[in-house]
Amino acid sequence: MAAKIAHAVRVLDAGRFGMIYSAAGTVSASARLRSVELFGTQVVPRVRELLAEQPAAAAGEKR
Q1: Is 19 helix (H, G, I), strand (E, B) or coil?
Q2: Which of 6, 10, 41, 54 has an alpha carbon within 20 to 30 A of 60's alpha carbon?
Q3: In terms of C-beta density within 10 A (0-12 exposed, 13-18 middle, 19 or more buried), how is residue 47 classed?
Q4: Is residue 21 a contact partner of residue 63, using CB atoms and an 8 Å limit?
Q5: For the whole model, what pTM was predicted?
Q6: How far separated are the first and last CA of the chain, in Å rounded?
């Protein structure tokens, strides 16, 4: 997930990325809360690391 977000940010030259999260369905409230927690504690820091590792100049490169 982090690699996909970092790639999209580079390709689109985006200044920020927002997560849209739907509460519909059969997923429990605790599972949704855990997902948001993992996004903030694991995914976001990894996206920042990936963006710092490869400068924006590489955005046009295909993977």
Answers
A1: coil
A2: 41
A3: buried
A4: no
A5: 0.73
A6: 15
26, with CB counted inside 10 A (0-12, 13-18, 19+), is exposed
Q: pLDDT for 14-45, tens place per residue?
A: 988 887 777 677 888 898 889 899 999 999 99
Q: Which residue reads 């504690």 in tokens?
A: 41
Q: Are 58 and 10 in contact (CB under 8 A)?
A: yes
Tell me which residue has tokens 């599972």: 31
Q: How many H-runs (helices) and E-runs (strands) does the chain carry? A: 3, 0
Q: Which two tokens stand for residue 49?
A: 């690391």
- Distance between CA 50 and CA 21 in Å, rounded? 23
The one-letter amino acid at 23: A
